Amino acid sequence: MTQDKTANRLRSRAWFDNPSNPDMTALYLERYLNFGLSLEELQSGRPIIGIAQTGSDLSPCNRHHLELAKRVREGIREAGGIAIEFPVHPIQETGKRPTAGLDRNLAYLGLVEILYGYPLDGVVLTIGCDKTTPACLMAAATVNIPAIALSVGPMLNGWFRGERTGSGTIVWKARELMATGEIDYQGFIKLVASSAPSTGYCNTMGTATTMNSLAEALGMQLPGSAAIPAPYRDRQEISYLTGKRIVDMVHEDLKPSDILTRENFINAIRVNSAIGGSTNAPIHLNALARHVGVELSIDDWQTYGEEIPLLVNLQPAGEYLGEDYYHAGGVPAVVNQLMTQGLIHEDAPTVNGHSIGDNCRGARIEDEKVIRPFDQPIVQHAGFRVLRGNLFDSAIMKLSVISPEFRERYLCNPGDPMAIEGVAVVFDGPEDYHARIDDPALAIDEHSVLFMRGAGPIGYPGGAEVVNMRAPDYLLKRGIHSLPCVGDGRQSGTSGSPSILNASPEAAAGGGLAILRTGDRVRLDLERGTADMLVPEEEIAERRRDLEAAGGYSYPAHQTPWQEIQRSFVSQFETGAVLENAVAYRQIAQGGVDG
Ligand code: FES
Ligand code: MG
């Protein structure tokens, strides 16, 4: 029987059934018996399965996992395993100050310690809100015990006066309506709240829907599971099946290092373009690749992803929301469309033991308004363009969200249709931007290019989602909604602004943004992928000397111990904003530490 074969190599045996160390075995056993498990359960050679619980009252997006875990437990038990549930450090995208970005690496570290240091043979990763997904996958990659992800699922669709309102996305629109006087403050709050009608994560194609879709494209979730809305009965069912499956994965010794291959990352990059995925995806997938030891660069995103058309018609780039995405066929329908064009590595492995090709082949589109066939896309070239120049070594732009209004105003110079030249207006961090954006003294007009610096992983610890800056109220009233924005911070995946973001190195790490000044002319060439300040070389050298003499770009003091620790070890966005020292630790359940 598989169970007997497995029993001898279960790592939990070192705790619960180790005849060479009876004292410690007794101590471990007596304490885990303490909450009601029996000796028979702990010593029968059954896999001990962790449920890494990311839901809590502090993390409303993932809170439904507290319910779903009951069905996961039933699945684990049914398949012959023992469930042990434990908390993961909470990460709430919208609730954490100063940034939830700080907590991805903290939750990662905490989960690595738990998975490595406790008697767990496999783990169910409960994913959902933006950074809970990468944090859990990164930790599973580092430790490398059998792991399967379970999405909490999106909220139901939001509605207001007969129209869909998408979480996050509606805030940008509501803010504009309030600026033009169409709604008051009460109306603003009501409109925003309408977008979040149930438990679950953001119902738009923000970072949460993106990362949950990509976790499935990477092969780490059961096929078809990512898009199921949180309150649906199917969500309960897939939770049960996920619990059952992880026990089999322990018997099969199927680990993250077996699943997270470069082919799967390339598949995920292409799926990301086709779904209109968030600009946070490169940060998180590059981080995950580094922890699992797969080569992946920011250029891979352009090489493999840029040409892929946008097929999924979800807000902010499109019209629909999470429930519609599920009914239209979810990730398998998207993967199948890409497969028909030879754009998927079909042999790439997944957690159910079958290849992604076998899982998704023939998956139908059930509603072509929501998921388009490959030859009738919403827009072509939906991936990211990588830009470089004297402003930074790399930054990315999502070309697919450029609105017709923006295109007409900025991208129509005859002979040079994809270049923007303008005058820089520079903000140092989100507080500075909020304080000054409406100040007429800045004289922002349609020739201005807004810059946000001091918002990267070091400058605003964790990196702030603030690059997508709105135009000043006086321009909004004139019908000018979006100005070109550039910055070393991130952008909320729920925002549709055409921004150049994730600039690396950031100002706080000595990037070119640190010496940019308001009034400098800048040139952004989206065709050639360049981004430069049009400042003479000698002047640049002089500003560099001045910056050095001043001790570098200054950023706010640390407020917590973790901010200081993270700032000393974090890499730039281009390389995943990982804790640089953690990258050498790979497959540590098997005793591996590189270099
Ligand atoms: Fe948690 Fe959007 S804020 S998923
Ligand atoms: Mg976000």
TrEMBL record:
| Any matching Pfam family | ILV_EDD_C
Name used for this protein in its record: Dihydroxy-acid dehydratase
Instruction: Please state the Enzyme Commission number of this protein.
Output: 4.2.1.9
Q: Which NCBIfam families match?
A: PRK06131.1, PRK13017.1
Family per similarity comment: Belongs to the IlvD/Edd family.
Class in the EC hierarchy, top level: lyase
All residue ranges annotated as the Dihydroxy-acid/6-phosphogluconate dehydratase N-terminal domain in the record: 46-359
Extract one GO molecular function annotation from the record: dihydroxy-acid dehydratase activity
* InterPro entries found in the cross-reference section: Dihydro-acid_dehy_C (IPR042096), DiOHA_6PGluconate_deHydtase_CS (IPR020558), ILV_EDD_C (IPR056740), ILV_EDD_N (IPR000581), IlvD/EDD_N (IPR037237), Sugar_Degrad_Dehydratases (IPR052352)
Q: Which PANTHER family match?
A: HYPOTHETICAL DIHYDROXY-ACID DEHYDRATASE (EUROFUNG)-RELATED, HYPOTHETICAL DIHYDROXYACID DEHYDRATASE (EUROFUNG)-RELATED
- Dihydroxy-acid/6-phosphogluconate dehydratase C-terminal domain mapped to chain residues: 369-577
Superkingdom, according to UniProt?
Bacteria
Q: Which UniProt keywords apply?
A: Iron, Iron-sulfur, Lyase, Metal-binding
